[in-house]
Amino acid sequence: MTSDQTTTNRLRDQARTIFQAGIDAADPARAVAAVLSCRDGQPVFSPHPLSPNAQEKPREGQWKRVFILSFGKAAIAMAQAAAEIIPNNLLQTPGIIVTNYENADVSIPGFEVIAAGHPLPDVNGVAGATKIAEIARAATKDDLVLVLVSGGGSALLPLAADGLNLEDKVATTDLMLACGASINDMNCVRKHLSKLKGGGLANMAAPADLHALILSDVIGDDLSTIASGPTVPDVTTFKDAVDILKRYDIWEKVPAIVRTRLKAGMAGDIPDTPDESDPLFRSVSHHLIGSNTVSVHALLNAADKNFEGKISDYPLCGEAREAADTLALKALECVAQSSNKPFALVTGGETTVTLKGNGLGGRNQEMALAFALAAEKIGLIGNWVFLSGGTDGRDGPNDAAGGLVDPGTLTRMRAQECDPSDFLDNNDSYHALEKAQDLLMTGPTGTNVADLQIFLYA
Predict the structure, then answer these.
(1) Which of 15, 184, 208, 302 could form a disulfide with 387 if both were Cys (CB 3.0 to 4.6 A apart)?
(2) pLDDT given at position 286
């Protein structure tokens, strides 16, 4: 079966529409509105309808005051949406918003907006974290502390533990980065050098009720990892942090005051981060309001209108071009079983690119180009399109969100004297896709839940 350009163009439009549904599901304001409502003058929190935990019970109460603490890249939109729903007589002002400089150039009635450094923490972040801590401590048992969390929260709230300062934490973090420490190891150490991370914010808010609405930028949605888990129990200990620094052979290199604190924690002179057995968490709850998982299910819902859809190979990880090869083989298998019926494969995740060349691109553009080459190699024919895009609208250091390829992609490239294999080897997917007019351009989306992929066949 050969491809038909009219059908291909229709599939391209449908792929963009389905991708937008995934972005819309992670829109911060829409995500808050999907779980927060008001009944009898009180806020009610319900699970997101597309969440894997959609059967959880709603949370509601009889609160006298509601304090809003919002931090992360989506902090402004989330705070605005919550304030529009919660009755004014309950809201305590000013609420606090801490976000990155790029998003902070706006005034929000009823809130103090603090711009801070990301990904490198700075003194403004310390100031914002200090105000958040002050408000959390001021709440009483009749109050609700509503915490709105989005990506970037860890760097934006760098409140060092007693006896430490920002420079001590930065120096320790830099040493861990230099030796290739994993994100889990980084988080363990940071939690034990911080006041807010690792359940610290929940501890400060007790005995008030605390509820967190979390927009996840972490694949797998580990709540203890998102913003370093300020409102959730911590499973790590001071001993774990010491063992990690010793394992990477940097124990003697971190600031002396850091070693002093960690040793005091191991000796029991400083309370460890609260774990799930701590009674403070009886008044703490959470709802995941947006994530890669939620957005992938939104893709599936949107695709089901015109295609027989399924989620495949979720979550995607590893090398982008290898993930593309796997998806192309899966698509070929489905084509063979489809009896020429329209179908869709959707997935998401966060792949990587090992740079071997000096070209321009990103992991989604590399995946799209690699998919086109893999499709040609394995003989994937007919009317199909493949889209891979970053939900934030930016894939690497360029203006594209990703790529959208079809059976004519490689032909268009070669007509422009572009060898797609050579461009892929040079990690120059941007310019290859540009020649085929197959760059996916969305502009900034105002959210970020990693990447989404869509394969359509008709």
Answers:
(1) 15
(2) 94
